[in-house]
Amino acid sequence: MAVRRIEVRERVMERNNAIAATVRERLREHGIVTYNLVSSPGAGKTLMLERTLRDVGRELGISVITGDVQTQNDADRLARHTSRLVQAVVTGGACHLDARQIEAGLDAVDLEATRLLIIENVGNLVCPANWDLGETAKIVVFSVTEGEDKPLKYPRMFEQSTHVIFNKIDLLRHVPFDVDRAVAYARQVNPALRFFSLSALHGTGMDEWYQFLRANVRELQAHQA
Amino acid sequence: MAVRRIEVRERVMERNNAIAATVRERLREHGIVTYNLVSSPGAGKTLMLERTLRDVGRELGISVITGDVQTQNDADRLARHTSRLVQAVVTGGACHLDARQIEAGLDAVDLEATRLLIIENVGNLVCPANWDLGETAKIVVFSVTEGEDKPLKYPRMFEQSTHVIFNKIDLLRHVPFDVDRAVAYARQVNPALRFFSLSALHGTGMDEWYQFLRANVRELQAHQA
User: Fold this and answer.
1) Which one of A35, A116, A150, B184 counts the least CB within 10 Å of its CB?
2) How far apart are CA A167 and CA A34, in angstroms?
3) A203 close to B (CB below 8 A)
4) Does B48 touch chain A (CB under 8 A)?
5) Which whole-number Å values give the CA distances from B109 to B118, B121, B133, B165, in the listed order?
6) Which candidate in A69, A73, A77, A78 is best for mutational testing of the B interface (most B CBs within 10 A)?
7) Could you tell me the domains of chain B?
8) What percent of chain A has pLDDT over 70?
9) Using CA atoms, how far apart are residues A45 and A139, in angstroms rounded to an integer?
10) With an 8 Å Cβ cutoff, is A146 touching chain B?
């Protein structure tokens, strides 16, 4: 029984990885940088994306694919801030997006007009870590209300990501969260991690995030030119 | 491929439910009330349990089985507050506890001395909803930093639970969270839900939670006498 489960799982993952490779190639051909945002539920991905779309959505040619277990609430929220298409994927109970859903989502995205694709994954610190979606990189959004120990408790997610965004830093005065300790724990799991600190609610620190997005979009365009 | 996956999954769930039934019977025979605490990562289950063990752990004969994906951090934290055994289960990547892990955990718990068993599940709003552990009831710990929409986004978890504990209410002044709206969304999914509001960090509202535990432990003991 256990052996059968593992075999089936491996075949499913192999198939996912194959589709992710074609997604990655398609995005590369169109010169699109793609970030896969992962986090706990309620870490603030959607609010951060709302503000990002409003402030630099047009400038950076941002398109969004947002995944949710049951609702399209996040897609509806995001759509208010952009004339660009926001593609919603309802996973119907699954705890992560998979590459096939991104492949299908891309058919509804204007790839010619897109320079930066942001995938908002399901709020979950376990499942999305193992699923390659063809992204340039995974980025963890980490609310300072969650406690410093999350990199140790969910190491795979932090291993698989290139950046960590500390969000809700306006609450640091009110919660027992030591940013230096959280950074140390995260580096223990993945020494190459880079960090941002911001408050999507108040706008603090968003400029550094935008500079990062801008630099990476320009770099890929220069590389392709 | 899809059919095979579903078949395997159904057999796994059937097997889990059968084990959960034997766990439930074993707990009933010993007159033990069992709550399965579920939440997002970082909602504050462990701190709430630390305080609960310190304040009423001895009075209510509380034992704990705590599940974590990779570490035993939570078990170590809890063990500082009680002389009672805290049984740690490392799921090794899985996003939830299953009944077999509880069945094995019970072998290490002094059931004669236990009147209330609290299971601290993996921090995850998707996976644990589908897994019966033989508990009396599931209880969702819901941090007010997570946003009011979580019951709509993760309905199955709220459908499967009897109570919701709003935690971190000391932060209500600093976050855009409307408790009445969150209650309305939760009742939309499950009209029978009951609610607690507390701050495990500051101790506010913990007495009502203790009264609830006390009443349910006494009720089961009276029922069995």
Assistant:
1) B184
2) 20
3) no
4) no
5) 12, 17, 15, 26
6) A69
7) 13-214 (3.40.50.300)
8) 95
9) 10
10) yes
Burial of residue B32 (number of CB atoms within 10 Å: 0-12, 13-18, 19+): buried
pLDDT value for A1: 41
Burial class of B223 by CB neighbour count within 10 A (0 to 12, 13 to 18, 19+):
exposed
Inter-chain residue contact A126 with B125, CB threshold 8 Å:
no
Q: Is B175 an interface residue toward A (CB < 8 Å)?
A: yes
Q: How many CB atoms lie within 10 A of CB B89?
A: 23
Give the three-state DSSP class for B166.
Answer: strand
CA distance A36 to A34: 7
Nearest CA in chain A to B149: A73
Q: pLDDT per residue over B128-178, tens digit each?
A: 999 999 999 999 999 999 999 999 999 999 999 999 999 999 999 999 999
Residue A68 has pLDDT above 90, yes or no: no
> Closest-CA residue in chain B for A123?
B125
- List pLDDT tens digits, range A31-42: 999 999 999 999
Judge whether B163 is closer than 8 Å to chain A, CB to CB.
no
B27 Cα to chain A: minimum distance (Å)? 27
Q: Select from A215, A130, A146, A132 the least CA-distant residue to A186.
A: A146
In the chain, the amino acid numbered B186 is A
Neighbours of A110 (CB within 10 A): 10
